[in-house]
Amino acid sequence: MGGGGSYRRALASPGALRFCAAGLAGRMQIGMVGLGTVLLVASITGRYGLAGEVAAAGSAGYSLLSPLTARLADRFGQGRVLPPLTLFYAASTAGLLAGVRLHAPGWALMGCSGLAGAATPQLGSMVRARWSALLGGSPLLQAAFSLESVADEVIFVTGPVLVTVLATEVHPASGLELAAATCVAGSLLLAVQRATEPPVIPAGAARGARGLLLPARGLVTLAPVGLFFGAMLAAIDLATVAFAQEHGHKPLAGFLLGGYALGSAASGLWYGSRTWRASLRRRFTLTLGAAAAGTATFWAMPGLTVLAVVMLCSGLAVSPMLISGFSLIERQAPPNRRTEAMSWLTSAISVGTAVGSAAAGQIIDTAGARGGYACAAACAVAALATCLFGLGRLSVPGPAPASIAHADIR
């Protein structure tokens, strides 16, 4: 099947384009809300420390509660869970916006931010669950998951640019307001699309669903891998900014990171259009190893030009690795906990990003950009070692259907 043809056929599935578009719009805030919060609080209060604490509270709420909100969607249905969750998210964000304008105490701002993060709908996991329900057992599922991976890359590249322009050129609150508006609109648009909503399966009805703390055994390996990988990505971001600044071209940091994301997005599209015979476990391990190998070279780069080329090439491994990881979870998790299972991986990556930012920032302050890249390399090696140690948990149950074994999923 041709690459473009597989994507066209996936999006031509009944209702697919509508829920895919709603999910993309709704999760645009992921690339905007953290930076938007920092820009708003810092601009109004003049306190960057407080701005970072408020943003961190939102990240903590999101990371800690996302598996629970995703599990509620599995248990009661997306259409029933999304409206009240979205309303709570909107109210908490409105409280944060009002609190900043009224110069509320820091604890109140952090509380509102934490509640907003906790109530953020798990649209990425929900959309992937819809794809799984719609295309399960089809070779088109890999193409669908690849589209979601590329959408994530687009969000993380365009979101920070958009929120910065709005916050600096329109109003300090404009970026966060747009982030909240897109989240609310996308969530409600997804909620009303009941025809493509995954069916609700009573707890314990699916095989292997009863009595499990984690919804997929592979998460014992994949969650810590995701944590280390998220820390690696955060360290790369900070170290790249520092590296560009040390070489007298700080504005070029965005282009360097954009090249990294471009490589990831391009490889994600290519990966999703291919037919694969290697197992999911092998593909996940090889792409993770390739990402780790590329990251391990960043600290030795002599200048910006060489670094740009190496980052572009290293980024090629990122999306295929994430696609394979989500595919493993999709194959292992029982249908009634699939959204929750995927949210565990995204939550682990989010926690890793927060931890990695803090650790890499301290290292860069004392050892410079190369120290930050060394931190990223250490996280990458830790992710690969964790994967190899827990490789036995990454097998998929039973013989994979030919459509999945040879085409895969994300």
TrEMBL record:
- Gene3D superfamilies registered for this protein in UniProt: MFS general substrate transporter like domains (1.20.1250.20)
Molecular function (GO) terms listed?
transmembrane transporter activity
Tell me yes or no: is Nucleus among this UniProt entry's keywords. no
- Provide the protein's localization: Cell membrane
Give UniProt keywords alphabetically.
Answer: Membrane, Transmembrane, Transmembrane helix
InterPro entries recorded: MFS, MFS_dom, MFS_trans_sf
Task: Provide the topology term for how it sits in the membrane.
Answer: Multi-pass membrane protein
Q: Where does the sequence pass through the membrane?
A: 219-245, 251-272, 284-301, 307-329, 341-364, 370-391
Pfam families membership: MFS_1 (PF07690)
Any one GO CC term of the record: plasma membrane
Major facilitator superfamily (MFS) profile domain: which residues? Answer: 218-410
Q: Which domain of life does this protein belong to? A: Bacteria
Q: What SUPFAM superfamilies does the record tag this protein with? A: MFS general substrate transporter
Q: What is this protein called?
A: MFS transporter
Biological source species: Actinoallomurus iriomotensis
